[in-house]
Write a structure and sequence with these properties.
Elements (H helix, E strand, L loop, with lengths): L18 H10 L4 H22 L1 H9 L10 H4 L7 H7 L15 E5 L9 E5 H17 L8 E5 L12 E3 L15 E5 L4 H11 L3 E4 L1 H13 L9 E4 L6 H11 L3 E7 L3 E6 L6 E3 L4 E6 L11 E8 L10 E9 L11 E6 L7 E2 L5 E2 L5 H7 L2 E8 L4 E8 L5 H14 L5 E6 L14 E3 L4
Parallel strand pairs: 3-5, 3-6, 6-7, 7-8, 17-20, 18-19
Antiparallel strand pairs: 1-2, 4-5, 8-9, 9-10, 10-14, 11-12, 12-13, 13-14, 15-16, 17-18
């Protein structure tokens, strides 16, 4: 069995598209759980020391938790550190940013999340951390059977007229050379704003080998294709990301195209969290880049078969360390995987799932994209949820920092109305908090229409 490296920095890429790093990942996936935890403890200790020395908010949090950053990290002591919430990030401002990012980590990159839990946040990262993220994206493709000369189609949230139906965007390769440091086939991309019927027509024209999209979109897209006899003769499998993949989406994909689904568990603010195992539908936590905890309501780590809240700590983000960040997801801890990999297992992942697509008066279905970042620019919105009450009416449920002015309400109404594929009446409902559903999930869009 390969031994773990003496220095945590030995398990990082030396540059974009570092295939030598992929070889090291090929070894580390087979480490024992004890070896991986040892590596993570040392990586966390480096990160805590950096956060204590350069991040004002964390300095106080670490002090309050009685953590000594000069000593080796003890995981029981680590758990005294309270989880960091989305609301904490919203309130922190610059107090959560490092005042001295290591120069070797490169330029600082700012990302505004789309607010899949209804609470958008702004997160800073570095070129170095992004480079590591690309390496783990490639790991997904190397774990599973891809013919890299094939055509990859994506239907996702992208901006710009060049992505719009009927043509979408065609490129000569799947992604940049930092992600794929070798030749690939072509890639085609369509904006998720297209109706399900238009997506199906576009997809039939493209006839791809692989399709990447969101789970809830896949469910309705596959159902539409099955009901209308639209086949994809070259489709090998589908990749899903960005939401929970439920069994119904897998089943619809199999019924429509006889194609399996390979899922990537990720979040915009932290990147890839877990990848689907090559031999099962369970997920392996990507422990070389992220420390994942699943805890119960008392903060106690869950064991196999238990479900709890997901806390994540990206191990290489030194621009804005997210120590014990609470995603808002729930997951079930799994038993060790028969594949032999020592990476932790998540049997099920819950949270951030849309229960339906928006239904237009014509009966067409659309992915609802309300532009969470723009909403927060127009008004001081902390959390939001859109509910389709009928074929004519959308209710916007809002948690705000203060009462909105008539001008802010008017601007919001105009923006929401123009973001919708058809004209809906928009009403506002103000709340102190928007609760989760009975499964413990938060949905930023809910459709109450039965068609």
């Amino acid at each position: 069995m390969p031994s773990s490296p003496a220095d945590p920095d030995s398990l990082v890429p030396s540059g974009p598209g570092d295939l030598t790093f992929q070889k090291r990942l090929e070894e580390s996936q087979w480490w024992s759980p004890e070896q991986m935890v040892d590596l993570q403890r040392r990586q966390l200790a480096h990160l805590v020391a950096h956060a204590h020395g350069t991040v004002p908010l964390h300095r106080q949090r670490i002090k309050d938790a009685v953590l000594d950053p000069s000593r080796p990290l003890d995981l029981e002591e680590w758990r005294r550190l309270p989880p960091l919430t989305r609301r904490d990030i919203q309130r922190a401002g610059n107090a959560l940013s490092s005042t001295k990012v290591p120069s070797a980590h490169g330029k600082v990159i700012t990302t505004k999340t789309s607010g899949s839990t209804g609470t958008p946040v702004m997160v800073r990262g570095t070129i170095f951390d992004a480079m590591i993220g690309k390496a783990f994206s490639l790991r997904h493709f190397l774990w599973h059977p891809y013919d890299f000369s094939g055509k990859l189609a994506s239907i996702r949230r992208v901006k710009g007229e060049r992505y719009e139906y009927p043509h979408g965007l065609t490129q000569s390769r799947w992604d940049d050379t930092a992600t794929f440091p070798f030749m690939t086939g072509p890639a085609v991309t369509l904006s998720i704003s297209a109706s399900i019927a238009d997506q199906a027509e576009w997809l039939a024209r493209q006839d791809p080998d692989y399709l990447l999209t969101y789970p809830s979109n896949l469910r309705f897209l596959a159902k539409h294709c099955r009901e209308h006899g639209i086949t994809l003769p070259h489709l090998e499998h589908v990749i899903t990301m960005g939401e929970v993949l439920n069994p119904e989406a897998r089943q619809e994909c199999g019924r429509a195209w006889d194609a399996p689904v390979i899922d990537v568990y990720s979040a915009q603010e932290v990147g890839i969290i877990a990848l689907q195992c090559p031999i099962s539908e369970r997920h392996h936590v990507q422990s070389e880049r992220i420390f994942v905890e699943v805890v119960d309501d008392e903060g106690v780590p869950c064991g196999p078969g238990q479900t709890g809240r997901v806390l994540v700590t990206p191990l290489h983000n030194y621009a804005m360390p997210l120590l014990r960040y609470e995603l808002g997801d729930y997951a079930e801890v799994g038993e060790p995987c028969p594949c032999g990999r020592g990476l932790p297992v998540l049997s099920r992942i819950l949270g951030r799932e849309r229960n339906a697509l928006l239904v237009a008066p014509t009966g067409e279905r659309y992915w609802p994209a309300f532009g969470s970042r723009k909403l927060t620019e127009l008004a001081p919105i902390v959390q939001h949820q859109f509910v389709q009450k009928s074929l004519e009416r959308i209710e916007a449920r809002l948690v705000t920092e203060r009462p909105l002015t008539p001008s802010e309400e008017r601007s919001l109404r105009i923006y929401i109305e123009t973001s919708l594929p058809h004209r809906f009446a928009v009403s506002f409902a103000y709340c102190d908090e928007i609760p989760r559903n009975a499964s413990g999930k938060f949905e930023n869009f809910v459709c109450e229409v039965t068609v």
